[in-house]
Amino acid sequence: MPKIHSQARTRPPWERMMRLHGMLQNHEYPNCPALAREFEISVRTLKRDVDFMKARLNLPIEYDARRYGYFYSRPVERFPNVAVTESELFALLVASKAIAQYKGTQLQKPLENAFQKLTGQLDQDTRFTLGNLEQTLSFRPFAPGDTDLDTFQSLTSSLKDNLAVTFEYKNLGAKKYQSRHVHPYHLACIDNHWYLFAFDADRQAMRTFVLNRLRQLRLTKKKFTRRKDFNADEYLRGSFQVFKGGDDYEVVLDFDDWATDLLRGRKWHQSQELTELPDGASRLRFRLNNLEEIESWVLSFGRHASVVRPAELRERLEQTAAILLDRYREPNPKSVALDEEFKPLKRRFNAMR
Question: 9, 97, 140, 169: which one has the fewest Cβ atoms less than 10 Å from its Cβ?
Fold first, then answer.
């Protein structure tokens, strides 16, 4: 019996059946042992697939003892229609609209092709219903990142085969690119941007890279051993989005009734605790390992949010407010002195934009 790999156990049986259907149409006379080796599953599992196709899909599959393989006893033009429930139909609609997030990027065409192949198995009535629902749902992504398709495909190959990659990367606000040699662990789309989580071989530490700030990516032939203890959810547990720090903060924020209506019913962070107050306002708590991303998020609410703690976050916002006040105030002698005093803070603020 072939060795069973954990990845093979999760491979959809529909994929195996479509492969078997194609071979039967091409008169290749496939058999269970050969297909079991190809899909790295047991012969018993493959036989269950064949039985399902015969009994549930009414496909005319017979076995030819002389050719040691299966064949169709009559012509089959296409694979049987796939029946879907109302909830599954709505899920398909959501999937089709989600592709809009990548409109104008190099990922748009491959996603559209994949969706067309998927829906091509639906019956005419279902496709008609799906078409009629087209105007009922839409995605309006804000400033989606443009990801190079070659880069994306090279990274997925690296993740699949545990191959190291090299590329040039520009840190946020930096003037020059730096060479990086990394072991890719995980790709994630966060806030319409693609991020790579990888082990930096030169720095001997995990690092996060924004895909649209790297260039000249090269897939090497050098295999690496993936750390078994890495988990993306655990790695980002204390991060507000993707920035990872080494501290531990209890962040407490107060919001007025206007901002509370925007907050209510949304999951901003896995550690959040939202308490609604009698006057319509609210208090929100987080447990974070850094303050960089939460600072800009609080600023986005303007006068509708205020920091209760930590004191360090209050001080950072106070300094930023002073910079902004100075920037938009009419020039005067005092502002010149203030500008000199806050030059280091301005550099930090500009780097975060």
Answer: 140
